[in-house]
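Escalation from tier 1.

The customer reports that the assembly of two entities below gives different structure tokens on two consecutive runs. Tier 1 could not reproduce it. I'm attaching the input and our single run for tier 2 to review.
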Amino acid sequence: MDLSPFETDNSVSCRLASQIPDVCRTEDCCLGIDEAGRGPVLGPMVYGICFCPVSKKQELKESKVADSKTLTEAERENLFQKLDEAKSYIGWALHIISPNTISTSMLQRSKYNLNALSHDSAIDLVQFALDSGVQLKEVFVDTVGPADKYEEKLSKRFPGIEVTVRPKADSLFPIVSAASICAKVARDHVVKGWNFAEDLGEVDSAYGSGYPSDPKTKAWLLKCLDPVFGYPQFVRFSWSTAQTLMDSKGVTVHWDDDDEDGEKAAQRHNNRSMLAYFSASAGGNDQNPTRQTHRFFTERRLKSLDTL
Amino acid sequence: MATKKKRTPNVQNDSWVVMAADSVIDTQKHDSDPAFVRLRNPATDAASLYMLSSGDVQLFEVKAFEEDFHSWFVGQTVQRDGRLLFVTPMDPLYLIIPYLIKSGKECKFQPMDQVLMDEEFPACSRLLSCTGSLASLHHIAEEKEVEKLKFHRYSQEKTMNWLKKKVERTVIVLKARNISVGEGVKSTTYIRVKSESDYHEEDYLRHAHGMISEYLSEELSKALLKHLQLPELTSPKVTEPPSKKRKLSELPVEAGEDYTKFNSSDFARKPPKKMTAAQKSLAKVDKSGMKSMSSFFSPKVKAEKN
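Tier 1 run:
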């Protein structure tokens, strides 16, 4: 698998795809969607689709593709080779969502959660297949969130295609298993050979599986924490594992959409907090409360200083 | 999710991000370096920060742009205070006026070095070495020369005329810079229909007067307003909410609130009700595609019978 398009800039997301088999443009096709790397705090989340003519379903079943979680890494690599070799009738496409994209989506002002990100990735890939001329008739998806709602959403988005959303679809439908293998193999490759954009010096690359529960991952997260910047872009900042560590070990950073309450917030919002009514003397620090700075200066946030 | 972050107090730092005119750091002619000095602020009567250029040739005021949630990256360091200091030229006469007024109460002509004495701010005597300080004193004081020695006495009339010119000059700049001066912009909810060109001369004058007043005592500011023949505005102070109790009176009862405005088309919707901090943080979460809490409590859909 050639991952170079992603590796040239792993801060943004990237799509990789196989050749579209000619037969897929003429015959009715089925398509499976699955993901890899939803839970880890490290590395990208990869969405994969696999498609083949409906008539070749049996052939695919016989190639013994199975849920990628039940396979060893070597078996997965093997199966992916097989899938890739069957390029006369099987096509695949991947959407690698960089950890940086995950962080910035989930932490931006208007929150964009992982489910929405997943749904949009899936929709994107199906649209890509359609745009490439694949004659889609059936789509099988492993669910994200409630299955019935997701199914409804996809059916609405792609009228004329029969959409089946099921939990554990990767063990039920061979085409979804195939997609899950493609996604998993891509993720493994990307994580193993991650190109750090940051100059980390001597930090070793023994970060383990990347799952928050992995002690190796935890130790690595502790080791490469920068008090000011936090983590390299390899880490999903939005994961509570990373957030907790940054909160306790890093410098506190305040953003203007942080929630805060109490005296300070009240002051900021120009209203008096309840506590102010109970304190000894209010407004003692203001020398001349009747005199307000002219709005020319207040509008421009300009103040006189008395000390540096 | 919403973890409470402790605010650590701002510590003093030894570097600042400053914007200054080239003339501030022009040390070619003089030996001394430009320096920050604390002087009596004419508006507040308290200490404020100023800067004197090398050789005390020029006076500058120091203003800080300060907003919450700002920090600087300077080279390879982080500077926590996100302030931007501006060092801008200032007419030293503004700082001299209060001292002249004070000594003018004795109605005597006095040498300036005796006028500019302040135990609290000894640096104030340095104001006299600024270029033009002595030469422009005639704008605000009467002068007498006896045997090459100059004596001064504060003149309210001269000062008012001088300040009026300052206001007029400020108006010219306000217009040239297209600065919005009308009262209308004060209210954020008010949608302005007038274009900027519809400002009245009075708006400009009032705005300029307000800006100049930042450098004047309250008394002088009021006197200047009169001198400019601008009526004093009775600005509505922060109004107390009307008391719930109805006042007893013989007058016929009239509607306290006018609901007819809700019928007009330009009635804008009120902003949504305030939420608590917890509700706010919940509202920010993107919940699309997630099961609602209540769905876990509803009776289970019975599995289809085979």
